[in-house]
Design goal:
This protein is of the alpha+beta class. It has two domains: 44 residues; 213 residues, no CATH class. The protein is 26% helix and 19% strand. The strands form five sheets. Strands 1-2-3 form a three-stranded antiparallel sheet. Strand 1 and strand 2 form a beta hairpin. The relative contact order is 0.16.
Length: 279
């Protein structure tokens, strides 16, 4: 009986030991594989979250949400009064049905276009600083001709639309009584970087900008002949409000103006787009 119990204990012990050795062997193999692969790999910085734009300085005292376009670009959004606006310029390259918005890089292609087109800033000169084209696209968004705005396929993220002229009126009316330390409508909506300072009217302190969080940056524009202008000193946005079959009302800001300025542009112009929530 004693022999039987001893044999049983020995057998169970050997079984446990065998199992333990198997687990140890498996764990050792995994550890060796991990250590071996780590030894040959360089340490890399984790990618930034999709909703973080490292090239834009937003207002750290405000709460932002996000929206996503067809391409997967994620944009910060901000509530101002009763409206929710994108806090970045659009940079999508497809309509909402998946069709590509052609990139018109050359002056010739841009000036001859009779349909929707978009472009970056390659070769453009900025008054504030020079950026690599890839960085500029992330920071300032793309420039779109008016045919894109007029296209029924649409480009705004889900739940958003290109604002009407009346939407901008609602925005500026609200900001006119809430601009706080920024001191003016334009400064309350402008970002704290990249703008050329205006010595003439004393608007030298960019740190007081952006009390509303819209974070407007001076993306400039592209004329109908394909040439660029205004980078570092101005920004122009399309509205969806037509003035005629060949022109739309637009909204703009300048480094030396204290208000948002309403203008008229023909469809060949290349301007930025900010979208507003439909809710």
């Amino acid at each position: 009986m004693i022999i039987s119990i001893t044999h049983s204990i020995k057998t169970n012990y050997m079984s446990i030991l065998s199992t333990s050795r198997l687990y140890f062997t498996i764990l050792s193999a995994i550890a060796c594989t991990v250590l071996s692969s780590c030894k040959d790999q360089k340490v890399t910085t984790p990618p930034l979250p999709l909703n973080t734009n490292p090239h834009i300085e937003f207002n750290p005292g405000l709460s932002y949400l996000t929206t996503t376009d067809y391409d997967g670009n994620v944009y910060k959004t901000i509530k101002i009064g009763t409206q929710i606006w994108m806090a970045e310029n659009l940079r999508v390259t497809h309509y909402k049905n998946g069709d590509t918005i052609p990139q018109l890089s050359t002056d010739s292609a841009w000036s001859k276009a009779k349909a929707g087109g978009q472009c970056g800033y390659k070769g453009a000169t900025f008054a504030s600083k020079t950026h690599a084209d890839s960085v500029t696209l992330i920071k300032y968004g793309r420039l779109y001709n008016g045919y894109v705005v007029n296209d029924t396929r649409g480009i705004a993220p889900l739940g958003y639309r290109i604002p009407k002229d009346a939407d901008w009126k609602v925005l500026t009316n609200y900001v006119s009584t809430h601009f706080g330390k920024s001191g003016s409508i334009a400064k309350a909506l402008s970002g704290t970087t990249d703008w050329k300072v205006n010595i003439d009217n004393g608007l030298l302190d960019l740190s007081k900008n952006n009390s509303m969080g819209l974070t407007a940056l001076p993306a400039g524009m592209r004329f109908g002949d394909g040439t660029y202008d205004g980078m570092g000193t101005s920004v122009f946005w399309w509205t969806s409000t037509e003035q005629s079959s060949t022109s739309f009302w637009t909204q703009s800001m300048y480094y030396n103006e204290s208000d948002v300025v309403k203008l008229l542009h023909d469809l060949r112009s290349g301007l930025s787009i900010r979208c507003v929530s439909i809710f």
